[in-house]
Amino acid sequence: MTTPEAAPTAPTSSSTVTLVRRSKATGEERTFHLVGTAHVSRKSVEEVREMILATRPDTVCVELCATRHAALTDDTRWRSIDAASIVGEGRAGFVLATLALQSFQKRMGDKLGVRPGAELLAACDAAREVGAEVVLADRDAQITLRRAWANLGLAKRLVLGAGLFASALGTDAIEEADIEALKERKHVSDVMGELGRRLPEVKVPLIDERDSYLASGIEESPGATVVAVVGAGHVEGILATFGARVDRAALEAPPPPRVGQKLAAGLPVALALGLALLASSRGAAPMSLALAWVAPATAALGLALLAARARVETWLVALVTAPLLALVPSASSRVLGGLEVTLRRPSPDDGARLGRELSVPREALVNPIVRALVVAVVAELAASVGRLVAVVWLVVALARAS
Question: Whole-model pTM above 0.90?
Answer without folding.
Answer: no
